Amino acid sequence: MSTVTEAGLLTSREIITGDELGSVPLATSGAVLSAARRAAAAAPRWAATPAAERAAILNRAADLLLERAQEAQDLLVREGGSITGKAFYEVHAGAAELRHAAELATAPQAPHGPGSDPGRETEVRRVPLGVVGVIVPWNFPVLLGMRSVAPALALGNAVLLKPDPHTPLSGGRLFAEVLAAAGLPEGVLEVVYGDADAGAALVRSPDVAMVSFTGSTEVGREIGATAGRLLKRVVLELGGQNAYVVLPDADIEAAASAGSWGSFLHQGQICMAARRHLVHQDVVESYTEALARRAAALRIGDPYRTDAQIGPVIDRGQLTRIATAVEDAVAQGARLVTGGRVQGQFFPPTVLADVTPKMSVFHAEVFGPVATVTSFADVEEAVGLANTSDYGLTAAVYTSDAGQGRALASRLRCGVVHVGDQTVNHDPHLPFGGVGASGNASGFGGQAAIDAFTRWHTLTVSSPARSYPF
């Protein structure tokens, strides 16, 4: 949680206690535009820096982030409500993003075929865009921030970063300190702190060539519309109403374990979370019982001072939205198996059974620890249910038959599918992105990052110089 002081400071506070963690300057729209100009001024020299030097800075930043791992983990726990295991993973995943980006900086460019005129020498290469604006959410600020910041820098761009106001320290100040200490030149990374107004100024800035946004579909649509009018490149990674399909041959306890992790990790506040558990009718009762048993056994509490497995929801408004969604589902005929009621700053892991496509909870993303269970009779129905969504981020198929899982996965309309696993998976080397209401396809991972954060540049040379009839 954060508060704004009369002095124009954004003060970050611990979710559980309200204790002050630190303050950063709150940026006005004018300050955002000034920061964008500084980044634009620094961009050409950074683009001209040899790739090996850029890679070395990013590798040093990864080392420095890991040296400060405990501090970073504590920030993620206290500022964003992470449990300790999630925070540990996120810091190390952020370092992995930096190292992967360093690899991208020095990776040989894919060759491009020659032009059609044999007398004209051609050179085709990928070049930086200039300034990349990055808007980061609060749920995985280190990982999701580094996923854009690191490759953008590696490929020669300057970056204008705006963290979410809930997590200005872990999602912003930490980045600036680590990269500056690693040797990143002044101005190449500018961090601005603020709310929607600061984000809007970032998107509109004439010095920002591209916007990478991770967050809600509603805000993503607005950013996409603005970027489209301004003819800017945009990468949108938005919400997910992800399907977790359990086939009748699955080991039910193992499937429930994976499903519980996919739905309840970080209080379900993950775009990749398993929202809709689609379970074959022959095993739906046993699966629902196993999932509810695991949900009810999870320890709820202060993750900084206890060994809690479920921490606080990010704020009171989100608690209310989760509770309202559950109440509406029950009113529409869903069966509340476990959880379902606010407990102070916490919402317990909740399982809703007998959910059908006629209920709003089947279609609307509930960004919290709520798993819905819907039965299906055969594979055709499972595919139809999974694809009955405006979203298309991730999905998973749990089965002991990998071939059957592959066949079903190939029919699911989404960006990423995992067979024999759950929906929450991340690998910096692999492309990631959703379709439909989940975004405009991949902009992260390997070649996808190169495509997103650079553009083609074509040079031709004619010698001797050519003349023409007029």
Describe the structure in your own words.
By secondary structure, the protein is of the alpha/beta class. Helices cover about 40% and strands about 20% of the residues. The strands form five sheets. Strands 12-13-14-11-10-16-17 form a seven-stranded mixed sheet, sandwiched between helices. The protein has a five-stranded parallel sheet with strand order 7-6-5-8-9, sandwiched between helices. The chain has a three-stranded antiparallel sheet with strand order 1-2-3, covered by helices on one side. α4 (about 85-105) runs parallel beside α5 and α9 (about 250-265) crosses α10 (about 285-295). The longest helix is centred in the first third of the chain and has 23 residues, at about 85-105. The mean pLDDT is about 95.
Strand content: 15-25%
Helix content: 40-55%
Mean pLDDT: 96
Distance between the termini: 68 Å
Strand sequence of the main sheet, in spatial order?
A: 12-13-14-11-10-16-17
Secondary structure layout plus pairing:
Blueprint: E1 2-4, E2 9-13, E3 20-25, H1 29-48, H2 51-67, H3 69-80, H4 84-106, E4 121-128, E5 131-135, H5 141-154, E6 158-162, H6 169-182, E7 189-191, H7 196-204, E8 210-214, H8 217-229, E9 233-237, E10 242-246, H9 252-264, E11 274-280, H10 284-297, H11 316-331, E12 335-338, E13 350-353, H12 360-363, E14 370-376, H13 379-386, E15 391-392, E16 394-398, H14 402-409, E17 416-419, E18 435-436, H15 447-453, E19 454-461
Parallel strand pairs: 5-6, 5-8, 6-7, 8-9, 10-11, 10-16, 11-14, 13-14, 16-17
Antiparallel strand pairs: 1-2, 2-3, 4-19, 12-13, 15-18
Helix pairs in contact: 1-7, 2-4, 2-6, 3-4, 4-5, 5-6, 9-10
